[in-house]
Amino acid sequence: MLQVRELEVEVGGRVTLTGGSFSVRAGDKVGLVGLNGAGKTSLLRVLAGQSSPARGLVSRRGGVGYVPQNPRPRSAAEVRAVTHVLSGRGLDRAAERLAGLQERLEHDHSPQSVERFSEAEERFRQAGGYSADAEARRILAGLGLALDRADLPLGVLSGGERRRVEIARVLFQDSELLLLDEPTNHLDVDAKSWLMSFLRGYRGGLLVVSHDLELLDSAITRVLHLEDAGLIEYKGTYSQYLQARRLDRQRREKQAERQEAEIHRLSSLAEVMRRQTAKRARTAHALDKRVERLKADRVTPLRRDRKLKVSFPPPPSSGRLALRVDGLAKSYGGPAVFRHVSFELERGQRLLVMGLNGAGKTSLLRILAGQSDADQGEFRLGHNASLGYYAQEHEGIEPKRSVLSHMRALSDAPEPQLRALLGMFGLSGKIAMQDAGTLSGGEKTKLALAQLVAGRHNLLLLDEPTNNLDPPSRTAVAEALAAWPGSMVIVSHDTEFVAALRPQRVLMMPEGKLDFWDDELLELVSLA
User: Fold this and answer.
1) What are phi and psi of 421, to 5 degrees?
2) What is the pTM (predicted TM-score) of this model?
3) Which of 203, 264, 423, 426 lies at 20 to 30 Å from 35 by C-alpha?
């Protein structure tokens, strides 16, 4: 399915992999892991043929299904969701052609027309065309798209629903190799469960990047760990990999200690012997060579996970009321997504917006951020309220502009201060001058959060801010926001993140029902 030999990957002048060699065969289920910025997404792009390697060989055999971190359907907005899924095997065009030949046959009964229709129908039948619609709908339903949404145009669907449609299209392709980059982003618990079951039964080769530990533990049999531009391979599940890596780290640390002790012993002995007889000086010279060989073969201990320490500065003061919303409604050319949404948010208050996919959570935040217009109603910010918006699609991050340039656009602070802020989020060194469009999903998340900090806001709109973050970064961001005294409107499926933030109010969408937060609602966070 996939053969990789001596691969080197470079992104923005940074080498993220060198000498990478591995293979993925039919039935292999491989997890690619590593911290944010290690180069996992860049490697997957190269393996999928979306970008070129600096050097090395990538050989693919059979069809390849690739799901990037933020998949977006490329079909026109008026194309139905189920039709877009069918296009994964070209069955949408085959069905159109068959319908055209059938219509022509009603007016032209010549042997040639009959033969063309019969041949086209046989090819359509052999390709599974007559059962394809049901199969496509089954995959869409499994990924959490409601049955009544499958026949809607793509342009009417929410961003989360469109991502589900694109994942369904790739799974429907029935490719021999699947390359999946954070496929569980934005999926609720039922959709994740369905996807895990699908991947366990998948017979082709699978290479998946994910910070969803449950997915990795249930679906894979081998782990590739990307760190310091090198790949280390571990056999077994994710839990077995963690244990093996822990033991490997301990072994290498002890080996490194023994080597350092031996280097110190031989160096000290050589120094003593060098000051004695000529014969002993020659022996000292031989010891020096042994020391040099030991240094050349020195074992490097495995790096421990970096502890990210993030802090949000105290917000500027504001009035008692941070935000007032009156009767907002929104539709996209069809039935209203939501209507009659009203609430008030006080200074320092945290409001969690909950609802099933397509209930209008992101649409509401986009309206409040000024990115979209409401059909009805209005809202206004309170006295001295300064609003910052974290968009789950990273719309504010523009390609062809450097990371540092994005920071300068939001703050007139001196460059050393901006670089220090980026460094707090792990975006230091060459990354600061890198094209922001080439960042991984996790790095884009960190840049967007750094921009919020630089903006000195006291009201934050957060739409799935922990997506794409590795576990240490997710914990650090949750702790930083939990300690921040400003106001927040939050959309999140991350149960641990919501628990850390301790919201006071909850807004249920699309009904717009406002209620006090109860910890029993945590069970619904991953579902809504």
Assistant:
1) -65, -45
2) 0.74
3) 203
DSSP 131-173: HHHHHHHHHHHHTT--GGGTTSBGGGS-HHHHHHHHHHHHHHT
Q: What is the CA radius of gyration of the chain?
A: 28
Q: What is the pLDDT of residue 257?
A: 84
- Identify the H or E element spanning 67: strand 64-67
Residue with tokens 């209620």: 515
Cα separation, 292 vs 287, in Å, equals 9
Element containing residue 477 per DSSP (H, E): helix 471-482
Q: Is the pLDDT of residue 305 over 70?
A: no
Q: Is residue 373 within 8 Å of 521, Cβ to Cβ? A: no
Please spell the DSSP secondary structure of 89-114, one letter per residue: GTHHHHHHHHHHHHHHHTT---HHHH
Rounded average pLDDT over 128-134 = 83
Q: Which long-range contacts (CB under 8 A, 24 or more apart) does 367-374 make?
A: 367/328, 367/330, 368/323, 368/325, 368/461, 368/489, 369/461, 371/395, 372/330, 374/328, 374/329, 374/330
Please tell me the distance from the alpha carbon of residue 404 to that of residue 396, in angstroms, as a whole number.
14
321-525: CATH superfamily: P-loop containing nucleotide triphosphate hydrolases (3.40.50.300)
The single residue listed with the structure tokens 């996970």 is 305
Cβ 229 vs Cβ 201: under 8 Å:
no
Instruction: Report pLDDT digits (tens) over 328-345.
Output: 999 877 788 899 999 999
Burial class (CB in 10 A: 0-12, 13-18, 19+), 401: middle
Alpha-carbon span 209 to 4, nearest angstrom: 17
Give the span between the Cα atoms of 350 and 347, in whole angstroms: 9
- Residue 528: the pLDDT is 63
Closest CA to 226 of 16, 414, 441, 473: 16
Instruction: Report whether pLDDT(320) > 70.
Output: yes
The predicted pLDDT at position 157 comes to: 81
Q: In the predicted model, is pLDDT for residue 108 greater than 90?
A: no
Q: Say how far apart CA 229 and CA 6 lie, in whole Å.
A: 12
pLDDT(94) > 80: no
First-residue to last-residue Cα distance in the chain: 37
Mean per-residue pLDDT, 357-364: 87
pLDDT at 99 over 90: no
Who contacts 384 (Cβ-Cβ below 8 Å, separation ≥6)? 316, 317, 318, 319, 458
- Lowest-pLDDT choice from 66-70, 125-129, 247-251, 500-504: 125-129
Give the pLDDT confidence score for residue 304 in this predicted structure.
62
Residue 119 CA to residue 98 CA, distance in Å, equals: 10
